[in-house]
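Fill-in record for VWA domain-containing protein.
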Amino acid sequence: MAVHGTANHKGASGKGASHRGLTQLTFIVDRSGSMAGLESDTIGGFNGMLAKQRAIPGDCSVTTVLFSNRTEMLHDHVDLRKVPDLTDRDYRAGGSTALLDAIGSTIDEMVARQRHAMPSDRADRVLFVIITDGYENASRRYSWAQVRRMISYERERYGWEFVFLGANIDAARTAGDFGIKPECAADFHADGQGVRVSFAAVACVATAVRAGADHDGEYMTAALRGVRDDYRSRSHAGR
């Protein structure tokens, strides 16, 4: 993996040459053992989200990272129109949760790609979506402080967007530990409906980012409203 640093790279904020209008969607999806039983909903939700994105005009590339205690880059900067659907051969739950390693290594890979890419291949907008249903418990290569610095740097200097969706954890607090804004985080229920609603929200966020939404937080609040409403309504109903 590339080593992250503060050297300039051509980022998503328009600083330096870039492919105007190209969006890079990066998905970091938990497939640890706690996701067992949610495989079909995760696969269906992910594929449904991709289908919605394919229907939208515009240049877009996709990177998909699946993680447990190990990290697998399933799609590496693939044209959205050529990304194959996720299958049960790709997504099999098992193992522990090396969340920091998954995020850190993926950011490093993206930084290296942006830095060395030809202008025609360099994304103008970058969105990271992180979906997990448990706490970090297995990372060995990256620390909380490292990942927070990395996310903060890319957000503040290059305008990268980060979304954090978490189940069985305090998503807003965990996102804050990563340096992700609270309006970009949401809790979801670790069940089929929660997973489906989460991916529907991801589709809304991706659509807004691809359309060039301003970084004012309003579009993010609107995009994540469905998953937040589902979490609140069913949490209250269970009391």
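KEY FINDING: DSSP finds seven helices and six strands in the chain.
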